[in-house]
Input
Amino acid sequence: MQKILIIINDAPYGTEKAYNALRMAMTLQKEHAEAQVNIFLLADAVFCALPGQNTPNGYYNIERMIKIVLRNGGQVKSCGGCSEARGIDKLPFIAGVHLSNMKEFTQWTVEADKVLSF
Output
């Protein structure tokens, strides 16, 4: 089984980096169901993990996209240090998204066959 790590470094809205990363993750899961897709949220991307996102009709919604990735067997982790620095480490995350650390991030990186950074 191929393992693919996707690193998101940018806020959920304002640029389309998180959107494009999650589009890639969902397409990988659809077209290559045998691949394990892991997503690690760094820097302002930790805000992607917050529930209750309310976007206008017709606009992409990062929360819904993360839920699709999780439902299809992907794993999503949020950097603990980045979350703490932004004051959100004690807030609830989207169900299935877990607070993590550099040790786990490093392990995912070493185990990955491919690493994509957005």
